[in-house]
Amino acid sequence: MENINNTEEYLTLIDIIKILKKKIVFILLVTILCTGIIALKVMFLSTPMYVASATAIVVKRDTSIVQNSKNESQYTQNDILLYEKIIDTYVQIAQSNLVMDKTAEELKNYSSSQVRAMVTAAPITLANSSSTSSLSGGAGNTQIIKLTAVGSNRDDVAKISNTYCKNFIEESMSLLPVGKIQVLDEARTPSNPIPTSKSRSIACGFLFGLLLSIGIVLFRNYIDRLKIGNEKQVKDILNIPVIVTIE
What we know:
56% helix
């Protein structure tokens, strides 16, 4: 057993380079193959995705209004915190099965699960925005919820987003009528698909092919080194004499 441990060999960096040089053709072929497959998928087989978004503005009704030194209306801190919780509740309503089912029922071509996979709702906080101050009555009491649809059908994503936005407003006003919600911007049919980083995907395919081919070469070399190939290896590893060899 001591001889086995003593005869154990370790590869240096130079040994690894020599092994890879011997298999350079195999490495190049595997790398080119993997890169070509990824490039083919990205350029010709990938489905372009489109995105469209509608926005709904939420205006809180007057509650705890106080006057500052300039005799201007302001909202208390508790009022603002309560309003933020209401916005979170509206987002939860937008993500509810009630809104998803109603949207799918109106669209007809999509199931509720498909609609849920395509749409998202998220608040957009506006601080001191002049575009919304006239609707809200002041800064800090208005927030916009963005309702986005992503899909492979360019003509459908805008329709899905607008239908989703309409149903969200209807159900929110029915379930939680503590403020006023109205459509700020309707979704429009996108002209271009979502930009994708084709060069990054191809580079990842190249790197994957290179690492895969090098791994295969080194693993095969390791397996070959475990095999007994001549009389000297029999004597060194097994420590027994060789009586007969067959060639």
